Fold:
Amino acid sequence: MKRIPNKIYLSEKETPKFWYNIAADLPNPPPPPLGKDGKPCPPEQLAALFPIELLKQEMSRERYIEIPKKVREAYMTYRPSPLNRAYRLEKALGTPARIYYKYEGNNPSGSHKLNTAIPQAYYNKAEGIKKLTTETGAGQWGTALAAACAMFGIEDVTYMVKASAQQKPYRKIIMETFGAQVHASPSDTTEFGRGVLAKDPGCRGSLGTAISEAVELALKSEKAHYSLGSVLNHVVLHQTVIGEEALLQFAKIDDYPDIVIACVGGGSNFGGLAFPFIGKTLREGVRTRYVAVEPSACPTLTRGKYAYDYGDMGGFTPALMQYTLGSGFIPSGIHAGGLRYHGASGLVSVLKHENRIEAVALSQTDVFGAAVKFAEIEGLLPAPESAHAICAAMSEALACKESGEAKTILFNLTGHGYFDLAAYDEYNKGNITDAAYSDEELKNGLASLPDFK
Amino acid sequence: MKRIPNKIYLSEKETPKFWYNIAADLPNPPPPPLGKDGKPCPPEQLAALFPIELLKQEMSRERYIEIPKKVREAYMTYRPSPLNRAYRLEKALGTPARIYYKYEGNNPSGSHKLNTAIPQAYYNKAEGIKKLTTETGAGQWGTALAAACAMFGIEDVTYMVKASAQQKPYRKIIMETFGAQVHASPSDTTEFGRGVLAKDPGCRGSLGTAISEAVELALKSEKAHYSLGSVLNHVVLHQTVIGEEALLQFAKIDDYPDIVIACVGGGSNFGGLAFPFIGKTLREGVRTRYVAVEPSACPTLTRGKYAYDYGDMGGFTPALMQYTLGSGFIPSGIHAGGLRYHGASGLVSVLKHENRIEAVALSQTDVFGAAVKFAEIEGLLPAPESAHAICAAMSEALACKESGEAKTILFNLTGHGYFDLAAYDEYNKGNITDAAYSDEELKNGLASLPDFK
Structure:
């Protein structure tokens, strides 16, 4: 067999020209979003916030959706991302397994989020939108949208959870450097924010509050829309560029994954990598295991309920059928901020519900241990979110060592950890603990689920 | 003409197997280093600090030096680096010029420094060395050596200038995450450091002090050596992997640079990119312009003197023939910390002395303006050091617009700016000024030159 290189590239001509829409291949696609009245959400309600093309993608049953030329041109500034063969890690673990990873950190947002920020900026621009609003917690999504808006010449207003803005000042600065207006939320720029501040002037904010502020500003501004970085079908669709590239890269080296692994927060990076492979399983019966990795502190897929729930705490968003811990479940302050979400993508949820994918929950100490080992061996400092996938991939590789099987493992390394060094410092000092929750907290979370009977 | 892709890659098989040693092609190579007595430095003095193979490289007149297999394997985790065609920037500037850049930030050190850290760790390991000591200011070099030592299983002790350790805590943490011991210098771990602290307990350190501590520890420890991240011939040699790759990449697309641009601190990234091209000029008479870019706050090549000088303030190092402002010249606290060096590589200096290369000094405000523009257009946030090369490349591209010439411009983008966001914040707020110096300060600096008559 020819030696497989450390990095498998694609030429520009070889890059995918289509996103893959798994809804076309699902026997039972997720049911429609519901409004507060329990009835399917009317399209007009969503059209005030999103451009028509994205809403079409949200509902589409077409298998392949063409990537517009201008989006492909912008992708070309950092895509295709390399498929890396982790030779050094394999050797260090002494495993017969072949370990591969897609690395999505080589772009200005430092994560996979730019893959959807670019088309969202493009479609909004094409429909005459002048301003996009959004919220950001950990900051990857906010950075991605800021970079994409700079590329397409759209104004960007981002509400950053105040606690994050204070803890991660670098994230705020990089967004501002790309020209974004960043407000620490709750802010005095919206009615909702002023209301929160009136009640609690010291409030350090939440994603729920930030979403409400961003939506309010979009609805009240001229030619403005709102933009979301995960969960929704069109967001996951855009991320499938990752998996479509990986399929082509594996074809080049005549290998194919037995196991595909990715972390799950809202679900877009998992879907982005895994859906094109799952499509082959659904259509052609290819046998591959798919492992979704979540933090044990926020075990949506492993301990949550499959039910209709809102995306935010206030119930401003439509309700989606999904795995959820209930919007009343407040995960402890773990360092993988991008995975602290009570729900999950409807598409990922239905796959889990039908046992087409596996889910595993990992503890924070194990995850940081794997991250540091990976950094030392492979020379790449991962984001704590991505380290969940690394940790699970290492476990699978060690299981191969045990069983003597030379399986092919693929995982998604979604981003770098340069903005997470305070967390690494805590780990180096031995201060990282396994954030846990009580049965009571889990019960209270599930009790917050809306009742649509 | 075939369309040139956004990124020009090389396969692993195509990557350079040799570093290029410009000393082989120079009509007048730099004269030997001198000791305090004004006589050529005895090899034993250097052998206490560096492995034999690196000293051989330091003195070598061979044109090509083979890259060891294990070094190539480690390079392969992040090399070859892409040659990027900056289409979006060309369009934004409206220039007929073709702009290309090598991007060296896609590795754990975030800069080109890893290209020499890896062979330095390798050669030391091969000679039975168990511990490397070094100093770091801005932190790129310290991070690179920490990552390389983790790869080769060597202990790493780094003295980080105390002021930097306090201003850039993330840099300290990333080194520690790679397993390095990081001491804020002056420290109480060396006699030299204790002496400094006894005189001034609040001392915030300097590169000179940190070098002295690192050298003392190397000399006093068992099986330990000292490691340097720029200036010396063997360091620049290792960096030529950048230019050798670029030569091969240009051959692939049937283009060739008319102008090669890089920033200069100690000179290793400039030499690394430009020397393989200068070699073609020296041997074959290929006409290319070479532009070394420095900050106007530390104008070594444009305002310095070509003379023997020490590498540090205390005169602990041998004296090298070089362009220098005198070790007594203290540049103002500009944000491109990696370019605040009073001297320059002997090889770069002799090329400037013989007018084989040009030098230009740029102001800090112009440089940050170019950096932010580049980030918005090309979607890549550069380190302030690298932004000097960007700024000069933009000027050349605008000159092409004026003259209507479709020149080919190549520059070195040495690293990302993720650890420099505090500086970008100052720029965004309008607080960045053109750090300057008085004629008096320049005179005092030059007056500090040693006298070897």
Notes: The mean pLDDT of chain B is 93. Residues 233-253 of chain B form the longest helix (21 residues). Chain B touches chain A at residues 5-7, 9, 11-12, 74, 76-78, 88, 106-108, 110, 114, 147, 150-151, 169-170, 173-174, 176-179, 372, 375-381, 418-419, 421-422, 424-425, 427-428 (CB under 8 Å).
